[in-house]
Design brief:
about 170 residues; alpha+beta; Beta-Lactamase; 6-stranded antiparallel β-sheet; globular; binds methionine sulfoxide
Length: about 170
């Protein structure tokens, strides 16, 4: 298994790292249709590639709530300290990404109105919407950092490409 996980030089750029993780995910997940397995494996390979990330994981669209006319996310596979279990689309950075179907880059979470502090050590955050092959929102992918301003357009492009490659194919 570990044979398919690429080793990158210490000076690899973020975009090279994202491309390498995307290649590894394609290889590891080939033929695996289970969405939880795909999410857990995505969290695993990304956190191995970016060890400085503080919290990394998915909040999944709750299909039961959706059928009752409510828009709510429920926590999915993640790596990090205890995450909030549920987030309404009306709340937080995750809610904004789900509502607007658009990546949110927050350089200072303390300046973001409505930010949900699952862990006060988080200082910056990126949340990427995740779509299936039909363009339906299935989840958001959330990364938190203890550093301020940890995420930029390179992270957005890299993570959006990975989410598309892993989840817009089923
Ligand atoms: N900060 C997020 C909540 C999720 S945690 O960071 C794990 C938000 O404001 O939506």
């Amino acid at each position: 298994m570990s044979a398919v996980i690429s080793t990158l030089p210490d000076d690899a750029s973020k975009s090279e790292t994202y491309q390498s993780v995307m290649r590894d995910l394609k290889a590891v997940l080939d033929g695996e249709g289970n969405r939880v397995a795909r999410m857990a494996t995505t969290v695993c390979l990304l956190t191995q590639a970016f060890p400085a990330w503080f919290w990394t994981g998915f909040y999944v669209v709750d299909e039961v709530k959706k059928s009752q006319g409510e828009d709510e996310l429920v926590v999915g596979p993640y790596n990090g300290t205890l995450g909030c279990l549920r987030i309404a689309f009306s709340r937080g950075v995750c809610g904004a990404a789900a509502r607007e179907r658009k990546t949110q880059i927050v350089p200072d979470v303390h300046a973001f109105p409505g930010h949900i502090a699952c862990d006060s050590r988080s200082n910056s955050e990126i949340v990427v919407p995740v779509f299936d092959a039909n363009g339906s929102l299935i989840a958001v992918f959330d990364v938190d950092s203890e550093a301020l301003g940890a995420f930029d357009a390179e992270d957005r492009d890299g993570l959006e490409a990975i989410m598309k490659s892993v989840f817009a194919t089923d």
